[in-house]
Amino acid sequence: MKKGEFNLRGMAVVSPLAREVHRRERSSCDVPNCRRSTCEQKPYCSEHIQFMPKVSSILAELQSRAAELELVERHPARATAESGHAQEILMRLEAAEGVTVERLASDARIYVAAVRAFIRALKRAKQVRTRKSTRGKTVVSLCR
Ligand SMILES: [Zn+2]
Q: How far is the CA of 55 from the centre of ligand 1 (A)?
């Protein structure tokens, strides 16, 4: 037995370097009282991943989108051209010239009534225009 490897009680003494390596490989979650370990040096365990700054901003974004949609489904007049859904519709129209309301709704997975509300807001903001197709469908395109 080499001197310094064991303490007086016979327990292995871990060198500061070895302890540091261990800490980096298996750090524990930063949430107080959570004893789960994390992988790949992430600060939080899989149960507390919502505390990661990037994840929490995405969740906040999704929550505000969901809240916005709920509001517009109840009060269509409150749809705004600045909302995330309206901006998404504009992006969709950037990619294709003339898209039906039904198509926009199925692409965005939101109700046709909600799309109509956002389209009305975008029309008020003079960002889109609509026309009727020969089949009587409302076709939306960007105002260029
Ligand atoms: Zn945790």
A: 14
Q: Which domain holds residue 99?
A: 53-142
Residue-level pLDDT at 4: 44
Centre of ligand 1 to C-alpha 43, Å, is 9
Ligand 1: centre distance to CA 40 (Å):
14
CA dihedral 19, 24, 26, 28 (to 10 degrees): 100
Q: How far is Cα 23 from Cα 16, in angstroms, rounded to an integer? A: 10
Query: Which residue from 52, 53, 47, 20 is spatially nearest to 34, judged by alpha carbons?
Result: 47
Q: How many domains does the chain have?
A: 1
pTM for the structure as a whole:
0.64
Positions of the chain with pLDDT lower than 50, given as ranges: 1-5
Confidence (pLDDT) at 14: 57
Sheet of strand 99-100: strand arrangement = 99-100, 138-142, 128-132
Report yes or no on 96 lying in a domain: yes
The CATH number assigned to the domain holding 108 equals 1.10.10.10
pLDDT for the residue 1: 44
Within a domain: residue 24? no
